[in-house]
């Protein structure tokens, strides 16, 4: 894999909490930001494969959207254990979570991927809670299920760590009153506003949409050759399918405040699944509230200390 390695020097979690407080309070009726010891994320309602988000924290941006536009590059397939090696992770113990395109060559069609895995004692002992979301060919509805595959395709954004417990940023909000409908974009834009375009702060973690309704997209199967190539970016947007789901929904998120090295990063990427086992999830966009219950979020994030740009596509 062709890999660029960027050392990061993020502010302390306490400084980040202070920087986020005013922007989040301006966007939500209730907002609290603090530094806490990470709860065991293996427990309900998160159901992650890893206990925590600490230890050798790093982020990888692999492939990218040019691998989908103007036509899917079906040779862009990676093994997540191989990506972890490119990220210089410990092969004896580690974890990955994030968002990407699923292993179409395994599933049998294009799909969304919510990577969620950990290992102890090597990759022969993987706990794999990864989900795929796809469009059912018969019903046109969303289907979400676990996959045993450790592959991904086209693009993926991953937060890696040893999976230890430790201090993390906890963000809780309720009842959005401001204009920023995306919880993760609200965080990303707030960090950019405070720290500027020359400072890269990269976060990874988990966001629980506790209640309220949010919008997600799920890629359908790849278009037929006669419908390719995509001519404009809006053609991709029109090809996607959009769905509204009520919480609780678990989102696995990676975001960056800026891209000062011009690495062609995906600035925010969050993929989701229902912790109740329902056919709900996909690529998180933003909340749309709800008739009876306002949107409520609870999130845990940690900062990456190293960024790996892997197999950046030619644009």
From TrEMBL:
Localization annotation: Nucleus
GO cellular component, one term: nucleus
Annotated keywords: Hydrolase, Metal-binding, Nucleus, Zinc
InterPro entries membership: C11orf54_DUF1907
Domain of life: Eukaryota
Main location: nucleus
Molecular function terms, GO-annotated: hydrolase activity, acting on ester bonds; zinc ion binding
Domain DUF1907: 19-310
Assembly mode: Monomer.
Protein name, per record: Related to Ester hydrolase C11orf54 homolog
Origin species: Cephalotrichum gorgonifer
